[in-house]
Amino acid sequence: QVLRKSLQRGFTLSTGSFLLYEAHKLISGFAEVHASFKVEEVIEQADYLYGSGETEKLYRLLVQHKNSDDAELLWRLARASRDLAQLSSTSAEEKRQLAYEALEYAKKALEKNEANFAAHKWYAICLSDVGDFEGIKTKIGNAFVIKEHFQRAIELNPKDATTIHLIGIWCYSFAEMPWYQRKIAATLFATPPTSTFQEALRYFHMAEEVDPNFYSKNLLFLGKTYLKLNNKKMALLWLSKAKEYPAHTEEDKQV
After folding, report:
1. Residues near 137 by Cβ (< 8 Å), separated by ≥ 6?
2. Is 110 helix (H, G, I), strand (E, B) or coil?
3. In this structure, how many other beta carbons lie within 10 angstroms of the beta carbon of residue 94?
4. What angle do CA 122, 124, 128 make, to 5 degrees?
5. Rounded to whole angstroms, how far apart are CA atoms 121 and 109?
6. pTM
7. pLDDT band for position 137 (cuts 50, 70, 90)
8. Residue 205 to residue 218: CA distance in whole angstroms
9. Are 199 and 175 in contact, with CB atoms under 8 Å apart?
10. Number of domains the chain contains
């Protein structure tokens, strides 16, 4: 039936050129399906390696696809690049290079799919990392953009506790900013970013409500924020939870 319909559509073509045309269509269709399947396969492998803590293997897998147009692949590559930069075995120069690479991958993911919450999240994280290499003026200047992308990520996925935690960290950092940095910020910007410990606390609690006990660092910062607010009873409660948290990662041990 397919051939009959095809012959009806292509009666003006010569037999040879018609068959080549139909074969090309079939092969092209198969290639598109195969490419789609391959992306899903790579993502599945990547998520397995990420869950297993195989940072270097994960980076090697994903960097092969750095020219991909798939936002899901690209934000994972940004995360893998950043994770590789965080390893103690990575040299200072490599850390810098990987930080800028990660930002480029996250930016490309965002360009490919503005509605991808993880692309916004990792763009904000990577932009913050790059600020560490470019000085206080750039870091403060980027702060508004960073918060906007975190907020956009939460709009797209209100159930991602990690992003909510990261806005809490943003608020805590600016609430804790030393007086001399505030003075520099006020000189450089008409309205520098500001926040309060109460605002930070609200986000840390929101993260716990979305996903209780999801992250040792959120427990730690709940305790630290209550200390800043001089509520030692609540600080002790959350710091005790952080202390008792099962240490699965290096970060958990540091907490």
Report:
1. 184, 188
2. helix
3. 14
4. 115
5. 11
6. 0.79
7. confident
8. 9
9. yes
10. 1
Flag whether 54 is in a domain: yes
* Residue 181: φ, ψ to 5°: -70, -35
The Cα 213–Cα 21 span in angstroms is 59
User: Which ranges of the chain does DSSP label H, i.e. alpha helix?
Assistant: 2-9, 15-51, 55-63, 71-86, 92-112, 117-134, 136-156, 161-175, 179-188, 197-210, 216-228, 232-244, 250-254
Structure tokens at 107: 């930016």
Query: What whole-number distance in Å separates Cα of residue 97 and Cα of residue 160?
Result: 28
Question: Is 30 part of any domain?
Answer: no
Q: What average pLDDT does the segment 8-25 reach?
A: 44
pLDDT tens per residue across span 161-185 = 999 999 999 999 999 988 887 787 7
The pLDDT value recorded for residue 14 is: 45
**187-198 average pLDDT score:** 85
At which residue do the structure tokens 């992003």 appear?
163
The two tokens of residue 144 are 């508004």
Q: Is residue 62 part of a domain?
A: yes
Range of the domain at 103: 36-116
pLDDT band at 37 (very low <50, low <70, confident <90, very high): low
Please provide the average confidence, as pLDDT, over all residues in the chain: 86
